[in-house]
Backbone:
C-alpha cells in the first residue's frame, strides 16, 4: 500500500467558484503510479468549501455563486458579525458544501466524470490564500 501527503497553498481567489483540478494534480505527481486508490482533499478553512461539478461551461460557476447567494443572503441577521457581513454566510455555505472530497483513482487518473472538475468555492469578498491537504493512498502499478 502506497501513501503520500502534500500540503499546498492556492489563491487567493476572488469570491466565486473556481476549478482547481489542475492545481491539485500538479501537486501530487505520485498519482500516476497508483493502479487503484483514493485521493482525499481537505480544505483547512471555514469560509470556503470544496465540491465537484461541471467543468466545461463557465456559466455554471456564475450560476452556482448566484444560487448560493440566494440561499444564504448576506442581509440576513446573524449574531457572528465581527469579521464582516460576508463572514457568517461564508461559514454557512462552507458547511453546506463541505471541506473535503474523496475521489477514486484508477490507472493513475482521478475517476472524475467527463464533465466533472474539482472546485474551490470561495465565499469571502477579500479572501486569503487557502491551504489544502492532499492525501493519496493506493496500490502502486506493478
Residues:
Amino acid at each position: 500500500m502506497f501513501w503520500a501527503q502534500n500540503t499546498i497553498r492556492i489563491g487567493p481567489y476572488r469570491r466565486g467558484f473556481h476549478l482547481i483540478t489542475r492545481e491539485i494534480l500538479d501537486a501530487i505527481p505520485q498519482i500516476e503510479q497508483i493502479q487503484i486508490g483514493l485521493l482525499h482533499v481537505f480544505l483547512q478553512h471555514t469560509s470556503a468549501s470544496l465540491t465537484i461539478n461541471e467543468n466545461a461551461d463557465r456559466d455554471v460557476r456564475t450560476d452556482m455563486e448566484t444560487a448560493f447567494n440566494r440561499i444564504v443572503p448576506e442581509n440576513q441577521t446573524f449574531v457572528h458579525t465581527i469579521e464582516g457581513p460576508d463572514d457568517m454566510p461564508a461559514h454557512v455555505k462552507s458547511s453546506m458544501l463541505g471541506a473535503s472530497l474523496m475521489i477514486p483513482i484508477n490507472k493513475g487518473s482521478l475517476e472524475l466524470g467527463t464533465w466533472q472538475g474539482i472546485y474551490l468555492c470561495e465565499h469571502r469578498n477579500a479572501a486569503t490564500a487557502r491551504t489544502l491537504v492532499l492525501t493519496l493512498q493506493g496500490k502502486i502499478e506493478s
Summary: DSSP finds three helices and eight strands in the chain. The two ends are 12 Å apart (CA to CA). The chain has one domain: 2-140. The mean pLDDT is 96.
